[in-house]
Amino acid sequence: MSIRQFNATYVSEEDRVLFRLTTLSGEEYRLWLTRFRVSEILAMGEKAAVVKVAQVEVNLLPQQAQAVAEFKQQTAKQSTQFTEFQPAQRLPLGAEPLLVKGLKMEVQEQSVVLHMEVSAGRVLSLKLNDDMVSKLRILLEKISENARWQIQPNSGAVIENAPEPVQIEPGTPGGTKLLH
Questions:
Q1: What string of pLDDT tens digits covers the 180 residues of the chain?
Q2: Structural domain spans, the chain
Q3: pTM of the predicted model, to two decimals?
Q4: Cβ–Cβ under 8 Å, residues 21 and 2
Q5: H-state helical runs in 26-173
Q6: CA-CA distance, 96 to 109, in Å (whole number)?
Q7: Closest Cα partner for 134 from 178, 91, 85, 78?
Q8: Residue 75: which residues within 8 A CB-CB, separation 6 or more?
Q9: Is 130 helix (H, G, I), strand (E, B) or coil?
């Protein structure tokens, strides 16, 4: 699935984010993201960015990789422009948004794969390049600010009642690392 566009709208009646994405093949996926899931995606995205920097610059200390990843994210924030969302006609998961119940992220050599569990046994997996991960983080940071969710922009952690820290598991032979 090649992603064309992301969209996020805070729906105050639900206290959730309606997350929509369209593909180049004309499909649209609609999902509900809770505050906790947004926080998880932000934390995982931040950790993935650091892992990606460390993959390229193997001699960096962890703090240096973190600083480089933060600099890249700040640069992306300054250059990202929001555009009007273009809905698609085909809705493979249906017109009603599905609640994302679980998340996992895999860091691979050329991409990051975000796995979103939408029901028992059903997982929507998004293969994202570094630029898409940055833009997804920017979009979710902006929408969480609009929702006044008090999610710290650079850590993805909720200020109060912080979720468990994100763990990076040892990579598999293909260079994949799972972030929970």
A1: 789 999 999 999 999 999 999 999 999 999 999 999 999 999 999 999 999 998 888 888 888 888 898 988 888 888 888 888 999 999 999 999 999 999 999 998 889 999 999 987 899 999 999 999 999 999 999 999 989 998 865 444 332 222 333 333 333 334 444 444
A2: 3-179
A3: 0.80
A4: no
A5: 35-56, 62-79, 130-147
A6: 34
A7: 78
A8: none
A9: helix
